[in-house]
Amino acid sequence: MDLSQTLQSVSTRDAVYRVLKSQILQLELPPGTGISEKEISIKFNVSRTPVRESFVRLAQEGLLEVYPQRGTVVSLIDSVLVEEARFMREHLERAVIRLACAAFPANSLSSMKRNLAMQRVCIEEQDYKSMFQLDEEFHHMIFEGCSKKNTWDVVQQIKVHLNRSRMLRLAADYDWEYLYQQHLLLYEAIEQQDVQHGDSLMREHMELTIADQTMLKQKYPHYYK
Amino acid sequence: MDLSQTLQSVSTRDAVYRVLKSQILQLELPPGTGISEKEISIKFNVSRTPVRESFVRLAQEGLLEVYPQRGTVVSLIDSVLVEEARFMREHLERAVIRLACAAFPANSLSSMKRNLAMQRVCIEEQDYKSMFQLDEEFHHMIFEGCSKKNTWDVVQQIKVHLNRSRMLRLAADYDWEYLYQQHLLLYEAIEQQDVQHGDSLMREHMELTIADQTMLKQKYPHYYK
DNA sequence: CCTACTACACTTGTATGGTAGTATGGTAGT
DNA sequence: ACTACCATACTACCATACAAGTGTAGTAGG
User: Fold this and answer.
1) Domains and CATH numbers, chain B
2) Interface of B with A in 7-26 (CB under 8 A)
3) Name one GO molecular function term (chains A, B) (predicted).
4) Which residues of chain B have pLDDT under 50?
5) Burial class (CB in 10 A: 0-12, 13-18, 19+), B222
6) Does residue A29 sit in helix, strand or coil?
7) Which of A16, B1, B121, B207 is most buried per CB count within 10 Å?
8) Sequence-ordered list of residues with C-beta below 8 angstroms from that of B40, at least 6 positions apart, any chain
9) For the segment A169-198, what is each residue's pLDDT rounded down to a tens digit?
10) Please, what is the angle between helix A149-168 and helix A79-102, to 10°?
């Protein structure tokens, strides 16, 4: 693998970090995989230093487990942590949607309207990759409209732990139409300033991922702790 | 400075990390202070490597800002981030206290009762350092009783950004008696399973730190961004 | 006197060698 | 055949050397 393209703009460390993180979240490096500094440094054709520093960051995010003098493995998925991550995200998103339903800038609202229109198109064209991106941006816009950028960043950190189990239940089996309907209703709640409705809608929306955690754990036992 | 004592149990990197983090949060390294890897490595009598890896972690937590080839400074306090941290903590603590008021294990409840008794003693003895610790443990127990250990860890991460501004308004000027009364009421809400009361109590409790943020920013302008 | 350039003293970034601890497979001894 | 031991090949950890970029002070030239 060659990182030279990425290297132009950012440091070697950041490039290694991003590639590794992506590979872990995409399950290209499955949970439990043993990796070593030397192995990665050879693979990426860099020295061990930037690799080590990437390991430090990834370990802090809970994606790697480093055992001194023994080795490093990609963290197993912790189903307790996954549920708590969902819990945290639910309550933060609900707190923000309540703010949004109380007051929301007009230009952010119209941005969301455009986003919804693009979601409509993506579903009809079955472009689920773009839809995934639009879903992210939709939620991001709610936080931005409420001036809660840092909160969004924290949610992103938390979501890391939801990501891999979401990846397991292949992206295809999502009911995107239902998802779109929920987004539409959330938008309307903000527009009509209906705090209670927005709150219950978001709670419902966040409970989508609560299911089949045990099912996944049974299906992929070696990926779970 | 010598780290040899700490070195027995943990790695040099962790020792450096802990000391630096402590010094930053205690304002012994005030916001805006310029520090270099070499300077710290000489001071601690270690090589640059573990210092660098500590810097990576601290930068990720937002306590350091690293400018490549130029230098590293202790992050200025971001008042927007402080308020958002308070916002996040409030909603997570409220979500958990509602769980606690719905169902709470008896042994955790009695642990809290013992903690409250010790708080009573500390206030009378004006031992505010221990009181600070007991305050932490009190909230921790609520999370533990609800099996939300990971959520507590995230709250701890978030609280880092509250810590320094709380340190500025010297610990002494806290109304510990009022704090104790709030804790007592929170305990009773859990005991009596009064969800609504617990929620509003915690909201009030979390709003304690909302004040005088602008005052602090005026008093210590060079510490703020 | 003022400007522009250069040399130098910094900084962080990267590469590499050596150290200590761990796991494993093979071998000698029972 | 089985167990205990030892050599070996790993691992992450730490120290050090080198590279590359930045700011500044001092100096030469106008």
Assistant:
1) 4-74 (1.10.10.10), 79-219 (1.20.120.530)
2) 11, 13
3) DNA binding
4) 2-8
5) exposed
6) coil
7) A16
8) B16, B20, B51
9) 866 567 889 999 999 999 999 999 999 999
10) 140
